[in-house]
Specification:
Layout: H1 3-19, H2 25-44, H3 51-61, H4 64-72, H5 101-121, E1 127-131, E2 137-141, H6 145-167, H7 174-202, H8 204-235
Antiparallel strand pairs: 1-2
Organism: Ornithinicoccus hortensis
Pfam family, one: HAAS
Protein name: Putative membrane protein
Length: 239
C-alpha cells in the first residue's frame, strides 16, 4: 500500500476519531479498531489496491459522520452499510453518565457506610454485665450480625440507587462498577462479622477489638477505593 492510500485511510480514521471525541476512551477505541479491522480485511482481498479501490472500501464503511452517529446512538457502527441514520448526536450525555454522577455516587457511598457504622458500631456497646447469686459477674455480647442486618435494611434504598446509577453509567469499566456495587455489602460483612469473631476468640474484649479493626479497614480501605473510583469516573466525564 503506497503513501497515498495510507493517507486516505489515516485521514478517514482521524476524522472519525475527532467525531468520537466525546465517547469514553474505551468505547472510542472499540469503534476505531472495528472500522480499521474492516478496512484491512477488505483491502486484503485486493492485492496492490488502486486509489479508487481504497476509496470504494471507505465508501463501503460509510461516511465518518454516520458511523459516529451510530456509535453515539448506543448501537454498533454499521460497517459496510452506508445510509441515513435516524439517531442524532446527543446534546447531553445519558443521566447516569453526567459530570455530577461520580461525586453523587461517592456521597451515597459515604452516607451509606457512615449510617451502617453508626448502627453496627452501637452493637459493640451491647455488652451486658450481670451478677449471679454468688456475686460473680459475667458479660455477654448482644451480637453484631443482627445490627448488620438492620443496617442493611436501613441503607438498602441508597444502595439500590447506587447500583442503578453505576450499572447504567459509561464512566466506569466493568471491574470498577463491580467494586462500587460490592463496597457496601463488604462493609456490612466486615462490621457484622469481625466483632462476632473477636467475641468468639477472646470474649467481650474481642468485641471491641473486632469493631475497631473493622472500622479501620472500612475507613482506610473503603476511603481509598471511593477516592480512586471517583477520580476514574471524573476522568471519563464528557467535556
Amino acid at each position: 500500500m503506497n503513501n497515498t492510500h495510507s493517507r486516505l485511510i489515516e485521514g478517514y480514521l482521524e476524522d472519525l476519531a475527532r467525531r468520537l471525541a466525546s465517547l469514553p476512551p474505551e468505547d472510542r477505541m472499540e469503534v476505531l479498531d472495528g472500522v480499521r479491522e474492516h478496512i484491512d480485511t477488505a483491502l486484503a482481498d485486493r492485492p496492490g489496491p488502486s486509489e479508487e479501490e481504497v476509496r470504494a472500501v471507505l465508501a463501503e464503511v460509510g461516511p465518518s459522520e454516520e458511523v459516529a452517529r451510530e456509535a453515539y446512538a448506543g448501537r454498533p457502527a454499521v460497517v459496510g452499510v452506508a445510509g441515513p441514520m435516524s439517531a442524532p448526536y446527543p446534546d447531553r450525555p445519558p443521566l447516569a453518565s453526567r459530570d455530577w454522577v461520580p461525586v453523587f455516587v461517592a456521597v451515597v457511598q459515604v452516607v451509606s457506610v457512615f449510617a451502617s457504622a453508626v448502627v453496627i458500631g452501637g452493637s459493640s456497646a451491647w455488652v451486658v454485665t450481670s451478677t449471679d447469686s454468688s456475686g460473680a459477674s459475667t458479660s455477654s455480647f448482644g451480637g453484631s450480625i443482627v445490627a448488620a442486618t438492620a443496617a442493611a435494611a436501613l441503607v438498602a434504598p441508597l444502595w439500590i440507587a447506587l447500583v442503578l446509577f453505576v450499572g447504567n453509567s459509561r464512566l466506569w469499566n466493568g471491574r470498577e462498577k463491580l467494586a462500587h456495587i460490592l463496597l457496601l455489602p463488604v462493609v456490612l460483612a466486615l462490621m457484622g462479622l469481625l466483632p462476632e469473631l473477636g467475641n468468639a476468640l477472646v470474649g467481650v474484649n474481642g468485641v471491641y477489638a473486632g469493631s475497631w479493626a473493622a472500622l479501620a479497614l472500612v475507613v482506610l480501605g473503603g476511603g481509598w477505593l471511593v477516592v480512586r473510583l471517583t477520580r476514574a469516573g471524573l476522568g471519563r466525564v464528557r467535556r
